[in-house]
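Ticket #380: bound-state structure for FER.
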Amino acid sequence: MQFKKPLALLCCTALLSTQPVIAAHAAARGDLDGDGAVTAFDVAIAKKGLLRGFSSGDAEKAADINEDGKTEVSDMIQLLRFVMGQISQFEVTEPVAPPPSSADPTAYMQKIRESMTNNVPAEMTAQTAYGKVETISYYSKTAEKQKSANVLLPDGYSTSERYPVLYINHGIFGDHNSMLDEGMKVRSLAGNLANKGEAKKMIIVLTSMYTSKTSDQCSGFTLADTLAYDAFLDDLTGSLMPYIESNYAAATGRENTAITGFSMGGREALYIGVSRPDVFGYIGAACPAPGVTPGKDMFMDHPGSMTEQEFRIDTNLPYVFMITGGTNDGVVGTFPQSYHNILTTNGTDHIWQEIQGGGHDGSCVVPHLYNYMKAIFKAE
Ligand code: FER
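RESOLUTION: The complex was predicted; output attached.
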């Protein structure tokens, strides 16, 4: 791909000056001082920025001449050659995909299993003013309308870095705000774990799963509503993920993409993860609700989004596949354990975490997220 000067500007350049000029707008490439022109002054600022850091995000962005998300000496060389008239366009470098991980999921999962705990240290759930929440609106091709999500950016978020992405799904009747509830500790855990260097800095996307052309919210425990939640598979992979990857400094690929959720959100994390192990290298679920496979409970008959035989992963094994269930869950009962049993029967390696006395709430979600966030994006 090449950066082209607008034709009109090219003419002006030729007529009025020998100095290369590009259109003036915020953070135009090469125009580090924002004066509307690319000159030797910009080269000087780039040099200083590379040596001692850039004074503003706009200048740093403008210094990324090849648009690969990093500012390096190679950018300055292109800038210098442009100012000297040796080149008339900036060459753009397509970001290089990270090499596929050679990690062995079975070995990695065993390591995680051995280091897990159900007792989350108190300092890890202490409230912290970590990161920044941005509410986004994206166009869902599946629902044919705008949908919302919350994006939690880590402290010190910078567009010159790339962060792995964890998608977290809410419970039934919830939305993108539900998992910001203090009882779930998403923000505090992510902050404390990152601050202590125990988890990777990551972008966390709190989703709003319900995906329907005709309805905006779940009406109850009905088959139509569960299908609208299942339609999130298409919405997430076809609309939300592309939005996140083109609007945030997101690392891509299954090694950098994780999903989990609570209850209905856990059910969808399982359904989505098992359906698309090529997209999600890390799969989790806390207190997953029934319905991925056929089953019946006090709420409804579930025909199953897939058969028990299909609830397996044979290729593209996840590096972490973690299911958490409490022994005192009055809403989903022993369904989390039944997913564990089906995976065992099907020979799909996974971690089963049972919380003694754990209920349908933070008592399971917090230990799940604590162990999961520590484990994800680290298999190598
Ligand atoms: C069900 C039991 C529980 C069900 C959903 C749930 C749609 C979800 C509970 C939650 O999200 O808290 O049979 O069917």
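RESOLUTION NOTES: Residues 83 and 349 are 57 Å apart (CA to CA).
TICKET STATUS: resolved
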